[in-house]
Amino acid sequence: MTTTDRWGCAVTAEGDEVAVIDDAVTDYLTMAPGLERHLPALADGGPLAKTILAQFYLQAHRRHLAGRARELIEAATTEAATIGVSDRERAVLGAVGSSVDGRLRDAIDRFDQLLRDHPTDAFALRAQHHLLFSSGRTGEMVDLVRRVRPAWSEDLPLTSLLDGQEAFGLEESGRYAEAEAMGRRGVERDPSDLWAIHAVAHVFQMQQRWDEGARWLDGREEVLDAGGGFAGHLWWHQSLPLLALGRHDDVLTLFDERIHKPGSEEGLDLSNAVSLLARLEIAGVDVGDRWAPLAEPCGARRGQHSHPFNDTHYALAMAKAGHDDALDTHLAGMAAWSGGDDGAAEVIRVVGLATARGLAAWGRGRWREAVDELGPVADETWRLGGSHAQRDVYTQIRGHAARMAA
User: Fold this and answer.
1) In angstroms, rounded to a whole number, what is the distance separating the alpha carbons of residues 298 and 318?
2) pLDDT means per 10 residues in the chain (406 residues)?
3) Using CA atoms, how far apart are residues 309 and 301, in angstroms rounded to an integer?
4) Which of 171, 218, 224, 360 has its CA 20 to 30 A from that of 110?
5) Where does residue 350 rank: exposed (0-12), middle (13-18), buried (19+ CB within 10 A)?
6) CB contact at 8 A, 33 and 229
């Protein structure tokens, strides 16, 4: 049976399964904490449900989940050939399948065509947004939203998300005034829109508007507390203006209470914590024993190197905590992965491995080695993904190493 989802896109499924897909995609778009509750039903669903679950698993960048994503795509492909699905569902399956294979450029091209044919496909729009961001193709993020926006009537749910996505693309493209206006509009339309809140926080940092940045989350605690794991990243953004203003005790408190998630192996949680501790040390702050609890969760990702940006942060945490054997294994794993032919392998070859080695050298106090590793690839770190604000830690570490080596 073919019906439509909340955004008017074709789904070959019955009522209960469509509701599960709609709810799961809504939680994906809003970064809600309850996404995991949908996973069993998606796994038991039809081709589209399985494909959406495969995308969720891919974005976790875990070895066993990457294998599970491949199994789901294989099962979805078989089922789709047996029962027949819509053109839209075949296109989603093809795009996510390319991502599973590590063919990220092909995945981007497939999602691009899908969104030309089905501009209100909210799942594809968010997946493409993340792919473009992680590939450093920020200008295309703006073009994408502006191209699909005319098809999004106000009757569709979560239209404010378009504002947040466009605002973030504008900010990463250096168009700060436009980004702030669009981000503020998104927050006004939906005060719980974390991506729009996030985009404006980026503008404040890039323009060094520290006082405004420090106040931006004031009064939003309830929204963030209800917002799941991504809220930790927004608190990380709050810490940066506080650090610039010299409010070091406040930053440490924020780290302990809001940013560091003890035991979490989630990549964004770890990169938030690792980069903030590095920034604090560069500012001359004694961070005590805060490095030690990060090393083991970072080491849990060994053997899966599909997210080079995170890999560089893991290397730094292991070095700072003195986990030399784990660090050596991690770097060897990155080197082995770089011999592949997927998108991450290319990034690791060009910039990822040198950056990871450079951060590890800095973590061990080997200043000259850090400069020698980081200097030649400094202009290529955009390939790692991450935002300008996140990648600034590479610049800070390279500068600190150069000063210490002089």
Assistant:
1) 7
2) 91 89 94 88 96 94 88 97 95 97 93 98 97 88 97 94 96 97 96 94 97 95 85 95 98 97 92 98 98 93 87 97 96 94 91 98 98 98 93 98 97
3) 13
4) 171
5) middle
6) yes
